[in-house]
């Protein structure tokens, strides 16, 4: 196989292409060009690294290493802590971006966006996340899926800004002055005895009987010659009342 020409599987190419993102960071200072094995089936990435002041070469077999992040703790540490092309996962965990942003940093190129190459992987990732959130008794929160138009984001998640406060050269301690408060004895107040008021029963109410006259008064001599009419002697006026209505008024006279 000629250097620079890939004839392996797509999965092998994806693993090889992801290594620069996994291994770059503070502990790595110089990228060495990839080398090909003699049989043309293995791609080796060589990295010049600084470890304990010595220059050593890190060789990673991306063809036979099916799960480097799972099986190699050093690769896993790099993957977890070093900035990727799309940010650092430590900057987004616990932030408003939600679980979707962590998926974008871990495997955003394959699982995120409106139409990603691998839609099913995110479903399994979200299901496991919800499972462990329930086991821990915490809410999984919102924004679980990154398969939306919000991904990829236009700008990476900003890094938190920490301001260090310089230590004081001459710390001053303030003594607390405690002033004792004199104790005062409150007088004991004895409540006055409670007196029970007598219950007064009201006297029974008596209703006065209504007296209705049962006898017809005798004919009056004040009719002045009027007959079968209701007459009002005070005004000498004949009123248009029937006999029964006329007799309801004491000042009126029914003339027979």
Automatic annotation (TrEMBL):
Residues 83-146 form the Glycoside hydrolase family 19 catalytic domain. The keyword Nucleotide-binding does not apply. GO terms for biological process: cell wall macromolecule catabolic process; chitin catabolic process; defense response. One of its GO terms (molecular function) is chitinase activity. Pfam families: Glyco_hydro_19. The keyword Disulfide bond applies. Residues 150-220 are annotated as: Disordered. InterPro entries: Glyco_hydro_19_cat, Lysozyme-like_dom_sf. SUPFAM superfamilies: Lysozyme-like. Gene3D superfamilies: 1.10.530.10. It comes from the Eukaryota. Residues 160-214 have a biased composition (Low complexity). Keywords: Disulfide bond, Plant defense. This is Glycoside hydrolase family 19 catalytic domain-containing protein. It comes from Aphanomyces astaci (Crayfish plague agent). The lineage of its organism: Eukaryota, Sar, Stramenopiles, Oomycota, Saprolegniomycetes.
